[in-house]
DNA sequence: CCTCCTTATGGAACCGTTTGCTTTACTCTG
DNA sequence: CAGAGTAAAGCAAACGGTTCCATAAGGAGG
């Protein structure tokens, strides 16, 4: 049988309350008793029952990650795994356990979250996406449950969120190309309904504008976060009369598509087309040539999300109402794909 | 305040026990009462408190995944994420929640597992690795806790595990090359202390032997599950006087390295060297040329692990002592990298 | 020397469920 | 019509902790 607090108490010749107090470091316990009890706990191999603890304390010391449903793609998987690592590491340091949940659809997701939170199985939630409207967010907000969003939502202004400054990141990426001497720079964007696509596009625009460079509509192509989009964008760009000498792609996968296409057509990177993209997945440095990429600090994103959430769980009142958006720094990793200055005409 | 079973009972004019029985579908509750109570539960937005439930039932309806510590590599991340998806999906179908845990080192891992299991926070554990000796496994076994291993351990014969038949998989891969007409086939192995490396090597051996093909020691190279190993193996093979016309690589990443090397030296795949590898990561079909690979059904591996574990939790006695190793089928995905029959001399 | 604190501990209620044992009120049977 | 049998629901004791309140012992102050 499992050894309980009562067993320890009996053996130590004290009351259960005393044992409990020893456990929680209560000030009014004599050193002598404390030592004695601790020895006996060790001897008997006592481990506190978390359920009983949770029942009375109304706190579980665990949080929950909501995993989006489909996310079959390569990057999503890498992204989520890295994020999870960050979350789990930090949570574990703060003494929290992490639960993973996902549902086949939004309704299931909502049910699951509701069950976990109302059923007092977790203390808070990390949401790993930024959909535009969201029943789950509504539920969390109206229920007053602690949660943080990884990503950004423009509909909900004052909720806790952890994100990159994608506008700035794209600005930096574009600027890097400009500083290498490029003037005709293309942009391969992602789905326009994603905030990240829009932000990165805006950053590109800003950089071009700031530097007084021409911006042609035909230099901006919309796509997915997939190789194919890159492949298609590439062939479109390369057939343009006055084609770009460089491009910024919203995602490394897109770059791979571009690379593959250019390779087939015997173009050279970065001489014929310089490339910078985002996310810096492990493969970026392994392709030929290695791709310059903006590292968005995924692990750090997760780590911070956990920190923010747990903080908000422990002192819900501490929220100042201002700093609810946490920005994780990005950094540009320059590799071969952009190490070339075009010859000026 | 949260609404409890007592609140519902009071409002419905019945006793808490009756409400509880309605909840669990007890046979001796009249239809009338049952309906009435259900309506009131709905009205009041009642959600059972899992902690209280767990406390009395001594069961948590949740399992825990132990994530290995470093696993910085690309494949590991893809592998784990896919596995987690499988586990989470199946667990959720069985009404179980999934906890993720990891520790910085084996000691921390053990502490964590011990706390979770002895503290009654989870009912069972899925181990995602197959180290040779393992304090965690020892703890789980001696404590009689339900757990399953993803992977194979040869030291522990009678524990539940879910795995591929890597010997057969390698046999199939090799056989495929043989049936295409190859006779000189190389093998790039992984670290020799990993069971998966040894199994795959053995499968290769078996296939060669069975077909009466010559096996030269120089055709077998040891490496890591990394591009670099492939790159090095490639240059070694290609410099051999009577070089292989095909090779089997333990991992797709290795193939990528081989591919990169061959590309640099202007060799053609599959004409100069045909390639088959393992794991069928999403990138395999995107490289040029796409790589033939053995799909090991990672998602399925996770799905089954969860199934087996939950089964073992629910009826621990049902274990027949024979079928404790569950084998997930693999399948060969033939792509361009092996679609070529060498010209016989 | 008695009262009043202070300090260390014990007692008991409670957290929200489940469940074995009763109790109650019928219905059936001989 | 009495006794047995049965269906439906209630009572109360757990489950393993925490914590408020009470208590006992010892020391200080008057």
UniProtKB/TrEMBL annotation, chains A, B:
Q: Where is the HTH lacI-type domain?
A: 3-57
Q: Where are the transmembrane segments?
A: none
Name the keywords, alphabetized.
DNA-binding, Transcription, Transcription regulation
Domain named HTH cro/C1-type: which ranges? Answer: 4-33
For this protein, the record's CDD domains field holds: HTH_LacI, PBP1_MalR-like
Report whether Calcium shows up as a keyword of the record.
no
State if DNA-binding is listed as a keyword: yes
Q: What is this protein called?
A: LacI family transcriptional regulator
Q: Which organism is it from?
A: Paenibacillus helianthi
